[in-house]
Design goal:
This protein has six domains: about 5-35, no CATH class; about 35-95; about 100-220, ntegrin, alpha v. Chain A, domain 4 (Immunoglobulin-like, Sandwich), CATH 2.60.40.1530; about 230-335, Sandwich (Immunoglobulin-like); about 340-485, Immunoglobulin-like, CATH 2.60.40.740; about 490-630, Sandwich (Immunoglobulin-like), CATH 2.60.40.1170. By secondary structure, the chain is mostly beta strands. The strands form ten sheets. Strands 2, 4, 6, 7, 9, 10 and 11 form a seven-stranded mixed sheet that branches. A six-stranded mixed sheet has the order 22-31-30-25-27-26, with no helix packed on it.
């Protein structure tokens, strides 16, 4: 085919349109569409058609993806719903077998009790669940003034608590623990008992602890306590109180103590019996049914005019934390008042307290003055000094004549003794001096004769001193508390011929040769118990400790470098050497005289000191020996022949 023919075929307009389409492989004829294939619009239309096609494809893919996501979400939600349903079903099932509210503990018992009365409390526990519980422990807490009795199945859970190891508690089961004991406390005291059940459920790993609490009123106490004392006192003056106690119950009360709370401004002076702790605690011990007793204490009370001072006494015991648990209490009050007359005294220049020794002389000085604005008629002054350790036969009134009643130890001064007491005008006063010795030999006849103490109380009064209605008579007083120190005794005796230890060596002594002797140290303690008692004995040069000794208190130490003996006794009761035999240490020494001692006695024992602390007065006491030589008059076989012969 020629080129012309080909051109005709391509561009001839009369050709069949179907043939052209066939030759152009199905292309669209621009003339048919009325479009210019080379125009920009034609290209833009094709581009839009192409973009539309891709957008449609993307949308279809996104729709498909959304369908898949939705399907997954539906499946997940359904799975979660199934899981939640299973969990809910499990919880519902467990709840039907266990509920914390279905485990209960309760306390049943009296709401009012008498102090010292034996009472019982039932602690009930129950498990209303289907599930059982393990490791169940019942804890019971009670106040310090409750004393459990007759309980052998529990264990201590603290100072005021018990616990019961129950173990397993089956479903729909219950149990009971009975607690017995006694409450001790004052009337109307409210106390509590608390019970808790600690356990773990078989369905849970947690620990649960339901609790119950009940209150109990103490309606009465078998222990009675009364405090008796003045209703008023002049500031700075002496005041005395008496505490009476009794067990009115039917059973003994063990280990009792009495504690007094003093008000501010009170200075303790003395008491009978003496306190066991801090000047305000007394040990009573066991008090049987119907038994009673009393305590007297005194001191001085200071304060402002019209001020009310409150005392409180309690009987009971100390708790584990050191606090006092009162089984009963008694309170009293005293009013500080002004006085129109003032009196002061000193004993051996002491105003409040004084420790004395056997053989001392007590010097009393009493000063008085009318501080009111009116004259006071018929003034009377008294001094109370009643104690068997005083030697009344040797009292010395000096210029202040008075009248002594030796049966009660009261000295009285009136206008017949001191004319100025007939009328004591405002601002006027005076002074009274007298002396009284302490006996050298203290009267100790039985174990009760110990801890001698008394108050020297000076008082002044006048009928012109008004007494407020309802109050005690206002008397101005001044007191000095006086305690007697124990008397120590120390003696040493030496023997060549001794029943306890055999001795050797020449008698008379010879220089360069050793002779042994037995020394007997004897101790005496008269009227008070002693603590930290010991004897220290120094040996002279040339004297040797032979380490042979005999004593019931064999705590003996010898220091060879110091050549000194120490005998430790510790505590030593009153009456040793007076009511009983003296305490004795027997030991052997050896002495070798030197040539320069020929014709002289040889020292066997140097300075020896018996020292101790007085348990009553708290003073350090000593008794001293300067020494002991070979002039042994107590050994008839030696006598005064203990000199060195050659």
């Amino acid at each position: 085919m020629s080129l012309r023919d080909i051109e005709k075929n391509l561009y001839h307009q009369e050709e069949d349109p179907g043939k052209r389409r066939s030759l152009n492989f199905g292309a669209i004829d621009p003339q048919e569409t009325g479009e210019n294939p080379f125009s920009p619009v034609s290209f833009e239309t094709k581009k839009k058609e192409s973009n539309t096609m891709w957008v449609r494809e993307d949308e279809e893919k996104k729709k498909e993806k959304r369908k898949k996501i939705k399907k997954i979400a539906i499946i997940s939600a359904a799975s979660l719903a199934i899981i939640a349903g299973l969990i809910w079903a499990a919880v519902a099932i467990r709840k039907t077998s266990f509920s914390e509210d279905q485990v209960k503990v309760s306390i049943a018992g009296p709401q009012k009790v008498q102090s010292g009365e034996l009472v019982s409390f039932d602690i009930d526990y129950q498990n209303l669940n289907r599930a059982s519980h393990q490791q169940a422990v019942l804890h019971i807490n009670f106040p310090e003034n409750f004393k459990p009795e007759g309980d052998l199945s529990s264990e201590s859970d603290g100072p005021n608590a018990r616990k019961y190891n129950i173990g397993s508690i089956n479903g729909h089961s219950a149990g009971k623990i009975t607690l017995q004991g006694k409450f001790f406390g004052p009337k109307d005291l409210l106390v509590y008992i608390n019970a808790s059940l600690e356990y773990s459920s078989s369905n849970f790993s947690s620990t649960f602890k339901p609790e119950s609490k009940t209150g109990i009123f103490i309606s009465s106490s078998p222990l009675t306590l009364e405090t008796d004392g003045p209703q008023s006192v002049v500031a700075g003056n002496a005041v005395s109180y008496t505490i009476k106690f009794q067990n009115s119950g039917h059973a003994a009360m063990p280990d009792l103590k009495i504690k007094v709370d003093y008000p501010g401004g009170f200075t303790y002076a003395s008491s009978e019996p003496i306190p066991s702790q801090n000047n305000n605690v007394w040990y009573v011990g066991a008090l049987g049914a119907g038994q009673s007793g009393e305590i007297k204490f005194s001191g001085t009370l200071d304060g402002q005019n019209e001020e009310i001072k409150n005392f409180k006494a309690a009987i009971g015991e100390f708790g584990s934390d050191g606090s006092f648990i009162a089984y009963n209490e008694s309170a009293g009050s005293v009013k500080i008042i002004a006085t129109p007359i003032k009196i002061e005294q000193t004993v051996n220049d002491k105003k409040n307290s004084l420790n004395i020794n056997a053989g001392d002389v007590l010097t009393f000085k009493i000063r008085y003055v009318n501080t009111s604005t009116i004259g006071l008629r018929d003034v009377v002054i008294t001094e109370e000094i009643n104690n068997p350790i005083l030697d009344y036969a040797k009292i010395n009134f000096a210029q202040s004549k008075g009248s002594l009643n030796s049966s009660n130890g009261v000295i009285t001064w009136k206008a017949t003794d001191i004319p100025g007491l007939k009328l004591l005008n405002p601002g006027e006063g005076g002074e009274i001096d007298f002396l009284i010795p302490v006996k050298t030999v203290i009267p100790v006849k039985d174990p009760g004769n110990k801890d001698f103490v008394f108050d020297a109380v000076a008082k002044i009064d006048s009928p012109d001193i008004a007494t407020p209605e309802g109050s005690n008579k206002t008397v101005s007083a001044s007191a000095v508390n006086i305690k007697l120190n124990s008397k120590l005794g120390l003696s040493a005796q030496g023997y060549y011929n001794d029943a306890e230890i055999k001795n050797t060596g020449p008698i008379p002594l010879e220089s360069g040769q050793e002779t042994t002797f037995t020394i007997h140290l004897k101790l005496m303690n008269v009227s008070n118990d002693l603590t930290n008692a010991k004897v220290t004995a120094a040996f002279p040069a040339g004297v040797k400790w032979k380490n042979v000794f005999s004593t019931t208190d064999a705590n003996v130490i010898f220091d060879g470098r110091a050549n000194e003996l120490v005998w430790n006794l510790g505590t030593l009761p009153a009456g040793i050497g007076v009511l009983t035999d003296p305490r004795e240490l027997i030991f052997q020494i050896g002495v070798t005289p030197s040539a320069n001692q020929v014709g002289n006695f040889v020292g066997l024992l140097g300075k020896t000191v018996f020292s101790a602390e007085d348990a009553f007065t708290k003073e350090k006491l000593t008794s001293t020996l300067t020494g002991k030589d070979s002039n042994l008059t107590e050994d008839m076989s030696v006598g005064d022949q203990g000199e060195v012969a050659k």
